[in-house]
Amino acid sequence: MLGLLSYIPTFLIIFVLAKRRLNDMDHTGWWSLLIVIPFVNLIFFLWLVFGAGDEGSNSFGPAPCKNSVPVIIGACVMPVFLIGIIAAVAIPAYPSSKRRPSPK
Length: 104
Description:
0% strand; single chain
């Protein structure tokens, strides 16, 4: 039940971010509904990540401003932070391998 309740806000956030990215690429936000179709959503995600946006203004508004230095630094640090969290959870889950003393 908790998983279902957390899925709804996550879906809404992903939907809004996909819509904003599509508008940056001068496409309508309705294309963001592709995130609910299995396997198509993988290709759609790659297109959103690696597709080029418009250089200047488009039919959805002016071009977004450049990223500031703190945003770029945060984007570089975030993967390291996430890997640290995953490691902090995963490493204690493995049992430690204690060696048995060998008979003399």
